[in-house]
Amino acid sequence: MTRWTMAPDRIPSAWFNVVPHLPTPPQPPLHPGTREPVGPADLAPLFPMELIGQEVSTEPWIDVPGEVLDILRLWRPTPLVRAVRLEKALGTPARIYFKDESGSPSGSHKTNTAVPQAFYNRAEGIGRLTTETGAGQWGTALAFACAQFDLDLKVYMVRASYEQKPYRRVAIQTWGGEVVPSPVDDPTHPGSLGAAISDAVRDCAGRAGSHYALGSVLNHVLLHQTVIGLEAREQLELAGERLPDVVIAPCGGGSNLGGIAFPFVPDAGVRLLAVEPSSCPTLTQGRFDYDFGDTAGLTPLLPMYTLGHDFVPPSIHAGGLRYHGDSPLVSALVRDGRMEAVAYPQGKVFEASVQFARTEGKIPAPECGHAIRAAIDEALAAKETGEEKVILFNYCGHGFLDLSAYDDYLNDRLPDEQG
Amino acid sequence: MTRWTMAPDRIPSAWFNVVPHLPTPPQPPLHPGTREPVGPADLAPLFPMELIGQEVSTEPWIDVPGEVLDILRLWRPTPLVRAVRLEKALGTPARIYFKDESGSPSGSHKTNTAVPQAFYNRAEGIGRLTTETGAGQWGTALAFACAQFDLDLKVYMVRASYEQKPYRRVAIQTWGGEVVPSPVDDPTHPGSLGAAISDAVRDCAGRAGSHYALGSVLNHVLLHQTVIGLEAREQLELAGERLPDVVIAPCGGGSNLGGIAFPFVPDAGVRLLAVEPSSCPTLTQGRFDYDFGDTAGLTPLLPMYTLGHDFVPPSIHAGGLRYHGDSPLVSALVRDGRMEAVAYPQGKVFEASVQFARTEGKIPAPECGHAIRAAIDEALAAKETGEEKVILFNYCGHGFLDLSAYDDYLNDRLPDEQG
Questions:
Q1: Which residue range is the domain that position B326 belongs to?
Q2: B190, B194, B301, B394: which could join B295 in a potential S-S bond, CB 3.0 to 4.6 Å?
Q3: Which residues form the Tryptophan synthase beta chain-like PALP domain (chains A, B) (predicted)?
Q4: Interval A45-65: pLDDT, tens
């Protein structure tokens, strides 16, 4: 067999909290004005109390509410697939598995946290959310989730994406969300994720009944994504494997990686590998420090690897990986040596993505291509050593809305040096 | 439960042939020159002998080759989903199920026949295929399949789609296929499916080692699609249903409809419903007659409902339904009263598609929206009568590559009168 599903009643009913398993206790976020640790009251204008509680929880497991499970069931459990055709093309003794998150309504893993975030906000009487989105993976996921809970949504979309890649904008509107280009105060600026966060936070901060939602970086977001790794663990067992030798995922803000990798943190023998673009090399080239999550300095200071909150990465196709900072949990695991990180230029990423499309059939999102690149390189290394390594990576989203990037790659319009 | 998968070993290992179950025996295709019934030798320049055999077979079941099954396993069995959120929004006592074919590599049901067609051609030593594609659903599916069997592929794409909807063109190229706009001899003509068929047939007819592949209409194509209905039948049983009251699918050339509906033809109580665009109303307004499959009159004459082989339908978004003719098998079943047909203008189709997206989460292809429209209307009729009707429809493909159509609809740029 090469594809493992599970009975729908095997969707994990609790999220895995990695905090109790960290080598060192997490450092608190700091207030942007006072530089003192932030308390729940500081975050209450932005987030519902349940999510604030999850943000600082040290409980090992946190229950998934039934209403959330009812919606996750629309596409979960997702399949685990063994990439036998890719293995054969590589001539590797490694066994390559991928967890296929591309079948969600919006086509990526982002829906796993969009649904609980919309749920907790609705449960606390919030009627409207604001958020930012880069290429649109997060904006589409939240628009889908808001439609399920009858929440209004305003999305600040990085202007370059808004104008050049209109499809995800239309998807957001199809689900009933409102989209505007960011930065709102400078129509000539191409925008950045940090600036769009500033716009979205400013919009809701002063408004009763409005909250803000973030698609990555924060602890509660990564928590919600752990359904990926929990399912993968069980499915690997169905596939006759004990544990993977290495778990791989792209890393922008960290939710993709945290989702598949955190449930394996307690297993000391399992390598955990973050893959980032060499044009935005937060984990491989950044410094570990307190920094703002946004450009304008409105958010709390987070302890993380950062390239500086005013860093504007070049406009690569993997828009979801263009973020100056990183999840504090992922950052701490990298700093403490429990996670590794590697960076690739985008030409190498698309080369791997096309090889994957022609063997396994599926066309990956450019973000996802980063994990495929690293998985292929791990498999080729195993070929050198003759090792029967078990490789697991997160197939975090499809590339149907990123085909213009493939057009550039196939027609040599993708400068490799761009990163 | 609301979503039923099956174990991977439950993929049907034989296709269901509807021919023995037809109320009247099928009429043969006629040679375009002599108007005599065509024999295998007439078709041999275009198709491998195994497919020609399937085209005229009266065997009730035909084995699926193992190598084909190995590839179908990449995405099959596909899930059967109960649309409980849509039911609730409609306030209907009906139970609405859809068979979700959108998870295939190219995002539609077309891969179900692309894979066996590529396989049989490769098995008979063919190294190159030609085909036509409208919006690109078929071209992408065949490009994926050809990549699996190392076959060269040249796709003649209707020029209007080639220029205005480049994404599926890029997908074909990503899988390694070549694409050119059609008609090749008139760069100012927007093109049509019939003209693209002429181009593709002309290309391979005179060339050794080249064959032609068609994505719908022919008996062997509909045969390959019956995995959809066979799986749905078994999954409905898992869902605790006996048989559906009505089976619904969009109908352009008929492969979508044949795929889900043919396995229910022997069940006299099950209504079978074809849904077509009112701008290309082949079954509802056409005449039953022998006609050419293409514009230039190169193909055999087929006994079918037709609007005339020189009919050029208006440029609606559901490009896959813009065909002047129809499957002879579907046509015969409609003529003999075993199948019904209904037509909708595209404004009503997109209204249903947006309601589906906001309730069930998934954004459907415009072709697929036709089935959703009819399913909703059946469910609303059941609300009037209080009937607990069981409705099954084919969710034949996602709309990620059709979002510009939603943009038009949401911004009132979609003239309803266009059909």
A1: 69-108+220-418
A2: B194
A3: 73-397
A4: 999 999 999 999 999 999 999
